[in-house]
Write a structure and sequence with these properties.
CATH topology of the largest domain: TIM Barrel
CATH superfamily of the largest domain: Metal-dependent hydrolases
Radius of gyration: 23 Å
Structural class: alpha/beta
CATH architecture of the largest domain: Alpha-Beta Barrel
Number of strands: 19
Distance between the termini: 32 Å
């Protein structure tokens, strides 16, 4: 990894002493000081061409100035980091994360692992709302080594709350009877349910399963009225992807689930659904059905949280294992390959038709066995399997992630006035997407953190 060399400009010693203090970039910048990042190539998160030889001036946690190096004088007293030969991109946003509060000490390690791995914000897609609110409140402090946390309140039909995972999110409350984990019944007061979810600190409502189309529409309209985002599974059973899109949800998750659009009727309960019921040989991402669906998404601005890594590293191995356990006469030849091919194909098609993709993982972080967060693998898969350029993949994990959260006015891109959530790299990610892991520093709200490996302590 290339080290950063910073030196005093002895030619202008007196002027430099008055105008700026130059430091070794491996130091943590004292709080409250103006920070100038000079001679750096900027990848701003908007999918445009990188901008070489730029200077960013950071003051009071925001980007106060951005200009070609040498075009303006640096503010008096600024601390300077000379980033010659380095690259800077917005802090990454994992738009499908899960903090599982089984152990506070471990969660703090995972939060640090995420931040020092380049993730400055996450969209948590349902969990223990009490614990998530505590984590989110703490993470607002730029001195806390954690991404900023925006979490959802889950809503599903009462039939879903028999799921084994429910107990982990209820914080001691009866299943489906918490503001952040609500069982929706025919007599549920939707206005009250959304109001309570908002009061619990949720940024959005996650529509999970076992909800008919009319209820999906009611929840979506009320959440939007109250200023919340609505995020849903692509298929909510018995609601199809087209039902979710028609209802006006902001983001749908899991590309693979869009295959259920081809089924005439879906079961009322998600547990009775199966990818095995889909005739994979007969469906195509280029079909009129899918083309119409994607065009409607583009028209409405619906985003796609593709979650490629989840299908690639969790669902596909699970399918292979389950099929191998079946008697030979009951196996579906090529089943896993069809599912994998569909997932990549529908994501590629969505990208081609202009659907904004959002990078998320839905896959647990394991600091004990991995060096970097899963979001880097997600971006690699988008490039290798779905036709995105490296710069476009970075946009899915920066600007688009901020848009999914509704925080794009302050986060997600590098521009004057934005919060300084940034990642400094030693190599060009535009040339090779794997270079997003060549992290030297992560900046959270102007606070500089040196990259280091985070290890999960033994228990």
């Amino acid at each position: 990894m290339k080290s950063i060399f910073i030196k005093f400009n002895f030619i202008l010693t007196l002027a430099a002493a008055l105008l700026a203090t130059t430091i070794n970039a491996q130091s943590i910048v004292p709080p409250g000081e103006i920070l100038a990042l000079t001679n750096v190539t900027v990848i701003d998160g908007n999918s445009g061409r990188p901008k070489p030889n730029m200077t960013l001036v950071i003051s009071r946690e925001r980007i106060a100035e951005m200009f070609s190096t040498g075009k303006k004088r640096l503010p008096a007293g600024a601390t300077v980091m000379d980033l010659s030969g380095q690259y800077i991109m917005p802090g990454l946003i994992d738009s499908h994360y899960h903090f599982i509060p089984y152990n506070k000490a471990k969660e703090e390690v995972i939060a640090r692992f995420a931040l020092l791995g380049g993730i400055t914000s996450v969209r948590d897609m349902a969990g223990d709302g009490i614990s998530l609110a505590e984590l989110a409140n703490a993470a607002r402090d730029n001195n806390v080594q954690s991404p900023r946390i925006y979490f959802s309140a889950l809503m599903a039909g009462s039939t879903w709350f028999v799921d084994a995972r429910v107990a982990m999110m209820m914080h001691g409350k009866p299943a489906g009877q918490a503001a952040w984990a609500r069982a929706v019944k025919p007599d549920t007061d939707i206005v009250k349910a959304v109001t309570e979810a908002k009061a619990a600190g949720a940024t959005g409502i996650k529509l999970y399963a076992d909800l008919p189309p009319d209820v999906v529409t009611k929840i979506t309209k009320e959440a939007h009225r109250q200023g919340l985002k609505v995020w849903s599974h692509a298929t909510i059973f018995p609601s199809k992807p087209s039902d979710a899109i028609k209802a006006g949800v902001d983001v749908i998750s899991h590309s693979v689930m869009m295959a259920f659009e081809f089924q005439d009727k879906l079961p009322e309960i998600s547990d009775k659904s199966s990818y095995r019921n889909i005739n994979w040989k007969s469906i195509s991402v280029d079909s009129p059905t899918i083309t119409a669906l994607l065009r409607q998404m583009r028209k409405q601005g619906t985003m796609l949280d593709d979650v490629i890594i989840h299908t690639n590293m969790r669902q596909i191995p699970g399918i292979v294992k389950a099929e191998a356990a079946l008697p030979e006469e009951k196996r579906l030849p090529g089943y896993a390959n069809y599912v994998e091919s569909w997932t990549y194909g529908i994501t590629r098609r969505a990208h081609e038709l202009g659907i904004p993709l959002v990078a998320g993982t839905d896959f647990s972080e394991h600091p004990e066995s991995q060096d970097f967060p899963n979001i880097h693998t997600e971006m690699e898969l988008l490039v290798a399997k779905c036709g995105l350029t490296p710069i476009e993949a970075i946009t899915t994990a920066t600007r688009n992630g901020a848009m999914a959260l509704g925080i794009e006015k302050s986060y997600g891109t590098i521009a004057r006035g934005k919060i300084a959530d940034l990642v400094i790299l030693s190599a060009d990610p535009g040339a090779n997407i794997q270079n997003t892991t060549k992290i030297l520093y992560v900046i959270k709200g102007g606070k500089v953190y040196k990259r280091e490996k985070v290890v999960m302590p033994a228990t």
